[in-house]
Amino acid sequence: MVDIMENKIDGSVEVPKNFYNVQCVLDVPPPKGENLKMLPKIFPKELLREEMSKDKYMPIPEEVREEMMRYRPTPLVEAVRLEKQLKLPKDVKILYKREDVSPTGSHKLNTALMQAYINNKEGTERLTTETGAGQWGSALSFACKKFELDCTVYMVRASFEQKPYRKVLMRLFGADVVSSPSSRTGYGKKVLEDNPETSGSLGIAISEAVEDALNNDNVHYSLGSVLNSVLMHQTVIGQELKEQLKRIDIVPDALVGCIGGGSNFAGFMLPFIEEKMRYKDGIDVVAVEPKACPSITKGKYEYDYGDSAKQTPMLKMYTLGHDFVPAPIHAGGLRYHGKAPILSLLANKGLVRTVAYDQKAIFDAGIAFAKTEGIIPAPESSHAIRATIDMAIEARKKHEKKTIIMNLSGHGLFDMKGYEDYMDGKLK
Ligand SMILES: *Cc1c(COP(=O)(O)O)cnc(C)c1O
Hints:
Blueprint: H1 5-10, E1 18-20, H2 39-42, H3 45-52, E2 57-59, H4 62-68, E3 76-78, H5 80-85, E4 92-98, H6 109-121, E5 126-131, H7 135-146, E6 150-156, H8 157-162, H9 164-172, E7 176-180, H10 186-194, H11 202-214, E8 219-221, H12 228-233, H13 235-248, E9 254-258, H14 263-279, E10 284-290, H15 295-298, E11 300-305, E12 314-319, H16 341-348, E13 353-357, H17 359-373, H18 379-397, E14 402-408, H19 416-423
Helix pairs in contact: 4-6, 6-7, 7-9, 10-11, 13-14, 17-18
Bound molecules: pyridoxal-5'-phosphate.
């Protein structure tokens, strides 16, 4: 029925010309602490301006928008085959927005392009970053190639070992990829001494990337989630979705996405949240996290550091503690102890609800999706698929009318180890 691919072909849905900044209606608690003074050393000026801005819209630079047009607008598709498999009645519908179609396979390229562009304009020579599952590192490597920057990626050891081909992809785009914790940084050396067998964590990898940027001239650090600016760059997703829905005359009952730091989900739902705040309408905004890293469902809403070494400023967020090291689940992109301040605030206000699933349940859902829709989802995205399927089945049982829209944040073509472990019954 609804395949918005057509709109892409006739060009009737455009790539947005602006980013949407939810800070125009939301007072997000600012970062605080001693480490605030390091921000100008690791981030470009324009990014820091975006971080604090209250402007509702910010123009997307033409060079960035042109790059986005390689893969945007991304399709909105009805999951007709999955619906059939789940025996859903006509008035229970599942639609998904395909962020897996970007050149590096996830939504992350949306902000990577913008950050590389800004850094290039401000004379940065090299960017450092961390990567969990490898999607962020891939996206930044690609964006750095495009905007002529060198790139060093600290990759969490668990993923470095589980996903060797992500590493190859990053190198192919010209990045230098290092297993974290590494002996390149003081902090990495210390962690290795204390615990040589550690599987690493995003918190540790962030500390290493930040240290590298702080200790070198013309080197900046780039973060793929959490920051207000990053969430804003991702709003191209939700803005397109709004237009696409308008064209097919659909009003969603629920918006579902997975959360690591919170950027794909925020970019997807933020353009809808202003109305929810104003009219208290019934749209159900659902964030899905892993039980192995339950930042919102089990964490505290308080100021905490963004990294393990306490080098970053403190952010007001849902957190499990900056030294929390989650089990090495295959959804490496969701292994972060905290959540974006914007998302945390919305969850705290009750505008977003959060559910958690364990690894087996999400692989079940991911495989059902692959078999019906023909797209192998990232294990991260499978969290959203699990919740969507459960909500649809519940609506069927209760004879409710419901349209659920899910953000498919990325594909899982580099996650074969996880799928293999699942099929061999080796999943923990
Ligand atoms: C990184 C990543 C996530 C988690 O990060 P967010 O900032 O919460 O979006 C989810 N899905 C995919 C495919 C990712 O690459």
